[in-house]
Design goal:
- The protein is mostly helical and about 130 residues long.
- It has a domain at about 35-125.
- It is about 60% helix and about 10% strand.
- The chain is built from three helices and six strands; from the N terminus they run ββββββααα.
- It has helices spanning about 40-50, 60-85, 90-125; strands spanning about 5-10, 15, 20, 20, 25, 30.
- The chain has a two-stranded antiparallel ribbon.
- Strand 2 (about 15) and strand 3 form a beta hairpin.
- Helix 1 (about 40-50) packs parallel to helix 3.
- The chain starts with 6 loop residues before the first strand and ends with a helix.
């Protein structure tokens, strides 16, 4: 087994030259297994929620594509974090408290968009006389 060297990600999560701390751990430290730092993963989660906030302005098929894309990426991060969370407990908290709820919300939003799409298809068929 090779020894993993962890180095801070350049300028990741730093505001005013100070790094963010979580329970005494530096959240800017790059983890090669995850492919980022806690801060960079949180940015991806925040991007997901930013897209979710716009769903009420989007078409159902677009909502479904965005939900599936974010879901795929967060699922990948979840697997990568599972690999290291016993060695780095900070990652377990990110997975349980941030990634899992985001994945649950994406699942709900995809189901809602799917229902909206089905209703639109039914409406279109009824208008075309294909009930």
């Amino acid at each position: 087994m090779t020894k993993m060297t962890l180095a801070p990600a350049p300028n990741a999560g730093q505001a005013g030259g100070k790094s963010h701390q979580m329970a005494g751990a530096d959240t800017t430290v790059f983890n090669p297994v995850v492919g980022g730092s806690v801060d960079s993963v949180r940015e991806e989660i925040d991007d997901c929620f930013a897209d979710l906030k716009t769903f009420h302005h989007r078409e159902p098929d677009e909502m479904m594509r965005l939900a599936r894309g974010h879901s795929a990426r967060l699922s990948e991060l979840r697997v990568r974090i599972h690999r290291i969370e016993d060695m780095f407990p900070i990652w377990r908290n990110v997975r349980i408290r941030e990634i899992e709820p985001a994945l649950d919300e994406l699942k709900d939003q995809w189901a809602n968009a799917s229902r909206l799409q089905a209703v639109r298809e039914l409406d279109w068929k009824m208008e075309a006389g294909q009930s």
